[in-house]
Amino acid sequence: MSTTIDTRGLSCPQPVLMFLTAVKTDTQGPFSVLVDNDASLENVSRAARNHGFTVATTDESDGATRIDISKS
Known about the structure:
The chain is an alpha+beta fold. The protein has helices at 14-25, 38-50; strands spanning 3-6, 31-35, 53-59, 65-71.
């Protein structure tokens, strides 16, 4: 089961820090991160890839984007 991290309404670097904090407690994931701005989407995706995760995105109906993050 994936860990959901809701960062909607937050600006960087908070979404990245929340993701990195979750990785410290669960190094394998998977994670679903909800973001609502392009900067957070790019930065969280980059941080995930830098830690060896694969990233897939899905647009949600409420204007947010879900970033699905899992180990390669």
